[in-house]
Write a structure and sequence with these properties.
Oligomer: single chain
Strand content: under 5%
Helix content: 55-70%
Shape: elongated
Largest sheet: none
Number of strands: 0
Number of helices: 4
Radius of gyration: 28 Å
């Protein structure tokens, strides 16, 4: 959308900042070497400026989180790969159990142990889904 000056020509330059959204106040703060090193590490890890890190931490309270998105994606990828391996192992065990059953060699103890471990796996997977939903909810605030 182009704005025209009173003379009928197009205005040039940056659009006007809406009233009340211009950051004109400044606060100076001093940090120890260790504190400053932590802020620099956060800046590098999170990919946001020192000012934004301090602003988010000071003004957000507990409703907004600052996270290392790269590390979170790496961890979620690791969890997904681990779940895929577990699923693959379960399929192999089920196939082997079916082979043993056809031969009449499957013991009741093996079936009970498999069922117990499979129930534990399902519970862990449900807990993981719940935790991920909580994280997503927190990130969307």
């Amino acid at each position: 959308m182009e704005e025209k000056a009173s003379s009928g020509r197009l205005k040039k330059g940056r659009p006007a900042v809406p009233e009340g959204s211009r950051r004109s106040k400044k606060i100076d703060a001093r940090f120890t070497e260790a504190e400053y090193a932590r802020i620099l590490a956060l800046e590098k890890a999170l990919g946001i400026s020192k000012t934004e890190i301090i602003r988010v931490r000071a003004l957000s309270g507990t409703t907004q989180l600052v996270i290392n998105a790269r590390e979170m994606i790496f961890q979620l990828d690791h969890i997904g790969a681990e779940l895929a391996r577990v699923g693959n192992n379960i399929n192999q065990l089920a196939k082997y159990a079916n082979t043993l059953q056809k031969r009449g060699m499957l013991s009741e103890q093996i079936v009970e142990r498999f069922n117990l471990l499979f129930q534990q796996h399902i519970k862990i997977q449900l807990d993981l889904e719940t935790a991920l939903r909580k994280i997503i909810r927190q990130l969307s605030k």
